[in-house]
Amino acid sequence: MVNNDYAFQKLIDEGYEFKFKQYLKDGFELFKKEMGSFVGFYAALFGIFFVVGLILGEYSGLVTNLIQPALTAGALLVANDILLKKKPEFSRFFDGFKFFLPLLLLGIVSSLLIVVGLLFLIIPGIYLAVGYSFGHMFVVFLGYDYWTAMELSRKIISKKWFEFFLFFLLLILINVGGILACGIGVIFTAPITLCMTYCAFEDIVGGAIRKYQLVENKPEQIEQIEPIKNE
Predict the structure, then answer these.
(1) Cα–chain-centroid distance for residue 33?
(2) Which among 16, 20, 155, 179 would be 20 to 30 A from 59, CA to CA?
């Protein structure tokens, strides 16, 4: 049985290098390898959200919030497949629904804690919003329950919290630029920034697993983080 606790504790205790520029560059290069698929998926996604908004009106936000985590997870699985040099099928974008319940629970609990934090002097909420940013990837790629995923994310990100804050602030500004570009630019910027976030997770968390992973107390190297097998 694979035990990643040692690797994660090393990250928390000893820290790690945050490669800001590398994550931006690697994420963009990853996006370019399947640009057509990413843009097609996000165009369809935003188109569906628009139609849902017209039909359901003020209730459309509920539907969007329910399904968006699973759709984001699907895009992350595609990014992981690309890094593993696999050719993802378009249907791969919808495999995130295999993790629907834990992602939904993670989204609800983390959002409640962030809102409470924002109500108390704002800063705690910002801290948690940044700190929980890897939570969904711990669920999708490593199979953790929502609370463990949230706490692992928070503890690891806290070691370089300010760097992550600047990183995510830049990603937000990139997406704002995409929205300002007649709205259509976001179908490019959304998958680009998702790939950049994935590359940060893969380097920091995946790198620690490759470095410290223990299988029956013997070191074992892995090429990349493999998605959970849920066939």
Answers:
(1) 19
(2) 179
